[in-house]
Amino acid sequence: MSMAVYFLVVLHGRKRRHKDELKVHLEDEQELRERTPSFMGIELDMSVEYSYDELARGTNNFSMENKIGSGGFGVVFYAELRGEKTAIKKMDVQSAREFIAEFNVLTRVYHVNLVRLIGFCIKGHLFLIYEFIQNGNLSEHLRRTKRPPLSWASRVQIALDSARGLEYIHEHTVPVYVHRDVKSPNILIDMNFHAKVADFGLAKLTDVGGIASRTRLVGTFGYMPPEYAQYGDVSSKVDVYAFGVVLYELISAKKAIFKTGPLGTETLGLVGLFEGILNQPEPIEELRKVIDPRLGDNYPTDDIFKLAMLGKACTQENPESRPNMRSVVVSLIMLSLSSSKWDARLIDEDKTLVKLMSGRR
Predict the structure, then answer these.
(1) What CATH code would you report for 136-348?
(2) Is 196 annotated as a binding-site member?
(3) What φ, ψ does residue 182 adopt, rounded to 5°?
(4) What is the pTM of this model?
């Protein structure tokens, strides 16, 4: 049984955006160094400390009515704190590694397509406080039938927003990071159907240029590339592969690994499904069969094919054959322009049909 970990936080100033050193003292410092070797010397930036009493009041003592989600590293509660709507992730001290990783990333980076860290609290548990994104996550929108189906244009916009967030942490931060858990539940959707990448608890520092390093295996099966699942090799191309799986989800609304076969007892991954389709000489008709049925006929076939081919490029077995996120963003910008034009034509056609049906010209 591991020794209990106790935190003593010393803060010098509490103004947001003011950088101060967060020092942690433990009963067994060596244990912390082994579990979280990069923890010491974290600086506070764009973050503020909250008291436990504030969090307890805001969540009605962490009541089930305020619970809005849960995951491998904690439970998430809704609260209004200091006049702002927030989401509070409550984590056990055993999740110190993930707490540190997420805190370390989100206090150093800011981008419109990354979820914003508002603050933290350490008392009995570990708490991270984020901006509240009101419209759920991508997985819910794709697979919960009570939600209206996402339009094709919205799907492309969500892909573009997510790609921009990942490109930022891969290429525009010092140091650069690999997310390591890119998946549809970690892509949050706001009320304007723009996306923010969330959950940096598995994020890892990497060398500039995304050079591979080896590490323990974490993440979600179905989104892991072969070099990571087999050898633990980590580079920015790990995120690129997982993002390709998300692109397949946007097209099909299927899970990364799903049940198949006559009795639903076999499993198949989206990468295998789409590879089998896209490697055919004439893939379009087979591709139509796996498009999310909730889209109906409201999609441009050419653009769906282009998005599928981008997904295929991202999920190449050889990481060196995958594009970087900058190239992915450029491809999605072009696809977004094309899809927006198609969407506008569809709206114009609907307006014309309404006029004809009503006898107006």
Answers:
(1) 1.10.510.10
(2) no
(3) -70, 125
(4) 0.82
